[in-house]
Every structure is written in C-alpha cells, then in structure tokens.
# Entry
Amino acid sequence: MRILLVEDDQLLGDGLCVGLEQMGYTVDWISDGFQAELALQDHSLDLAILDISLPGQDGLTLLRRIRQQDNPIPVLLLTARDSLNDRVIGLDSGADDYLPKPFDLEELAARLRAIARRRAGRGTPLLRHGAITLDPAARTVHLNDQPVSCTSREYAILETLLLNSGQVLSRQRLEEALYGWDDGVESNAIEVYIHHLRKKLGKSTIQTVRGIGYIIPKQAGPNG
# Structure
C-alpha cells in the first residue's frame, strides 16, 4: 500500500516513516499543506495520513479542498485535538477515520487496514483467491493452508494484484506500489518478483497480458 504522510513534526514523521515501512508500506512524507495538495494529485497513492496542524494550509482546509475536487483517496486524520466537536468536524469534512495523538503504531496500522477494507467493500480481513490466502494484518501468505515465504516486495506485488483482481496492472503501476518518490527502481525488478511468485504459487496464478501488464483473473463468487 502506498501512503502519503502529511506531518510537520519531524520526530513523529521520521518515526512513522520508519515504522510503517518496516510493516511493508511504501511511504512518501510531506510536511507542508500546500505541497501536500499537489502531491495528492498522484493517483498511485492508496491512502493519506493527514495531520490537522500544518504550515501552509491546515489539514482540515486541505481535506475540504481535495473533497471538493472529488478526490476519493481515503484519509486518516491525526491531531492533538480530541474533543467531540473536533472529531465531528473532521469526519464531516471528509475524513475516513480520526486518531488522536499520542497513539500506538499498531493501532494506526490496524486503522489503515480497516479503511482499505471498507473502501474495497470487503467484510473479511483476509484476501482469498482460490487456494491462496493473504492476511494483511500478519503479512502472511498461505497456499492450500501451507505457509509461503515471501519477501516484503513479493508480498506487496501479490497484495496489489489481489486487491485489483480482474484488472490488468502495468509494470509502472506495480512499481508505484513498491517504490516511493525518492527510491531507485531497478530495471527488471517487477519481472523478477513476478517470476518468484509464480514459482511459489503456480505459473497460472499471475498472467501476463503482453504489452500491457499483469493480472490475477477475477473469480466468480463472493471472494472473487
């Protein structure tokens, strides 16, 4: 999952980047409200963590502006304000969730997973596709109930393809799920990760659409 973190507290921002990246998220960090508005035009972002108190323009103003622009990106608000009125204003301005400071990183991650699950219209926390089961909370993969060892980037590609099953995802789209703005991208990295996943999960699991990208075909039924 690709996250935009908008937080002007350098110590907190650095800690969140390190913690979330260790959990497997790709994080881009911005500390200014005006810069964040431009960054949120990047459609490869999956979710935004937005502090209310920001230089440039405050988080609530930014949130209202992107919602007025019909930007549907899920937003989790962070704030030191924790009155009922503050929570109501934040949610009514278009936030998907609200987390007061201080908070535990594990709770933040759980809320991010819940937002992603609601936006995808899934009731279950698990992603299932045939014999494959992916657990976003534990970041584990099972095939026929047997654990499959995946690197963090193999896992990220598999999760992205499963969340978008039935859709052909380009190499660029998969790279955007793995790499932040400042990360270097190896020329054949996606092909290597796909090759390893096919060896572990079966050659037919991920299909190549020549000249376009990769797809995990959508299955019929409630889990498809």
